[in-house]
Amino acid sequence: MALKGLDIFKLTPKTNCKECGSPTCMAFSMKVAQGAVDISKCPHMSEEAMAALSEATAPPMKTIKVGTGDAEYTLGGETVLARHEKTFVSKPRFAVRVTPDMDVDAALAEANKVDYDRIGERMHAEMVYVECNGDAAAFVEAVKKVTGKGKTLVLACKDADAVKAALDVCKDEKPIVNGADASNYEKMVEIAKEAGVVLGVSGKDINELYDTTAAIEKLGYKELVLDTTGATIKETFATTVQVRRACLAKEPDRTFGYPSIVNLSKVAPDDEAMQIALASVFILKYGSIIVMDTMNYARGLALYGLRQNVYTDPQKPMKVEPGIYPLNGADENSVVLTTVDFALTYFVVSGELERSGVPCNLVISDAGGLSVLTAWAAGKLSSTSVAKFIKEEVEPKIKSRKLIIPGKVAVLKGDIEAKLEGWQVIVAPNEAVQLVKFLKDLQANGEI
Fold first, then answer.
1. Which of 153, 344, 372, 345 has its CA nearest to residue 261?
2. How much is the mean pLDDT over the chain?
3. What distance in Å separates the CA atoms of residue 251 and residue 242, rounded to the nearest whole number?
4. Distance CA 220, CA 242 (A)
5. 361 close to 326: Cβ distance less than 8 angstroms
6. What is the DSSP letter of 85?
7. Which DSSP letter does residue 56 get?
8. Torsions phi, psi of 297, nearest 5?
9. CB–CB of 324/394 below 8 Å?
10. Checking DSSP bridges between strand 121-123 and strand 176-180, what pairing results, if any?
């Protein structure tokens, strides 16, 4: 059971040193109890207290790290069943399935075609699921072909010798070995321990999955993911949901407190439409790794958009980084437009500017992630903030002295011109959709 703030406070040094970022040890303890701050933020906690509190305050689902470098991902660590309760922590990762009898290079190249940025997040298939078909030598060759490609590997194999040979090739990339079951878990634990990798556990049903996981924990290994894929879609969904509910219940069962793998290539083989539908289901309920036959734009655009919407913290506005964004081949002499850093506003405005074909520099300043009118009403978008950002960030880099501001804050025009000597301020239309004609007209008249 999770500790209360007072229980945590009793173990703190009670110095109120503020080094943790909280004004008092009591305030810090309350944040830890709420899950807002990690206990390790206190630099003066004794080792004994840290050990006791770390276990007690850890989330009921273990946080697992897989992969290395840019391909390192965090799985698990969830504390709630529904996003509205708090927030989800670790977004699902997509894996593309390959087998030794496939053209592995071609399959990987096809999946890699989907790679784009959306609201500051890279959208691509992060993992490769290498499935053994019984030929150990061919399996190892397939692993060689996907090693070093910037993907986290999942080795789906129950042959201990084949797994050892494959790990000799790729263990430095910290893959997942998805191969432990009731028949071989002792050997697989030894292999996983020696290589220092995460072990995937499966069972013929949810009861065997539970018993095998409990047996592995008794062997002292807890770097696990649970393969909740069943024989049918119905069984897979039921197992995945029951596992998550068990570990996040009021009295959590930590034996099921691990991330999950859902293999859609098994339950909906060669059925693209069904895999897309199921992937959207398991983004919500509750796949940590979702395995698919491939990734293409028909799948990616829908699934990555859904994942980003669900796994974005609802308490934090979606923002883009402040800066200068050149569009349509803009240079230092191109006209400057400005708007707020609210992601939706940025993408709507930048889309219309690109559609116009007119070279321009879109300047984004920090407006707290608010829309234009909200930021203006809150004092986040003002003549002072705009002028300050232009002077500090734009004038040293851009020679143009024409600035276009949002039509909804036309009232700022005079004040901005007074604060920016030598600048001409132009008021844009109220709606972004009107920007294309507006810019083309300005260009045709030689005003920009």
1. 153
2. 93
3. 14
4. 24
5. yes
6. G
7. H
8. -70, -30
9. yes
10. unpaired
Interval 391-428: pLDDT, tens:
999 999 999 999 999 999 999 999 999 999 999 999 99
With left for phi above 0 and alpha for psi between -120 and 50, is residue 18 left, alpha or beta?
left
On the question of a cis peptide bond just before residue 286, with omega within 30 degrees of 0, the verdict is yes
* DSSP type of residue 129: E
Amino acid at 431: E
Task: Scan for tokens 């009107």, then name that residue.
Answer: 434
Separation of alpha carbons 244 and 222, rounded Å: 17
- For residues 312 and 307, give the distance between their C-alpha atoms in angstroms, rounded to a whole number: 8
- CB of 128 closer than 8 Å to CB of 96: yes
Tokens coding 62? 């273990």
Complete domains list, the chain, with CATH: 5-57 (1.10.15.40), 63-310 (3.20.20.20), 323-444 (3.40.50.11600)
Contact 212, 201 (CB under 8 A): yes
- Find, among 122, 118, 68, 135, the residue nearest to 94 by Cα: 122
Q: Measuring CA to CA, which residue among 159, 103, 169 is closest to residue 132? A: 159
Q: What is the pLDDT of residues 78-111, one digit of tens each?
A: 989 998 888 898 999 999 999 999 999 999 999 9
Tell me the C-alpha distance between 420 and 389, whole Å. Answer: 11
| Helix-then-strand count for the chain, H and E | 17, 17
Pairwise CA distance, residues 244 & 43, whole Å: 33
Query: Can you give the pLDDT at residue 119?
Result: 77
What's the pLDDT tens digit per position in 226-252? 999 999 999 999 999 999 999 998 888
Mean pLDDT in residue range 264-280: 96
From the number of C-beta atoms within 10 Å of its C-beta (0-12, 13-18, 19+), residue 443 rates as middle
Tokens 């095998």 sit at which residue? Answer: 212
Instruction: Dig out the tokens for 189 from the structure.
Output: 């634990």
Alpha helices in 263-389 (DSSP H): 264-267, 272-284, 297-310, 343-356, 372-377, 383-389
Strand order in the sheet with 360-364: 323-327, 360-364, 335-339, 402-405, 424-427
In single-letter form, the type of residue at position 244 comes to: R
10 Å Cβ neighbour count for 57?
17
Residues written for the chain: 448
Task: Name the packing angle between helices 25-34 and 47-57 (round to 10°).
Answer: 30
Helix (H) or strand (E) holding 426, with range, is strand 424-427
CB 59 within 8 A of CB 79: yes
CB atoms within 10 A of CB 342: 23
Asked whether residue 1 carries a pLDDT value surpassing 60, the answer given is no
Report the 3 state secondary structure along 22-46: CCCHHHHHHHHHHCCCCHHHCCCCC
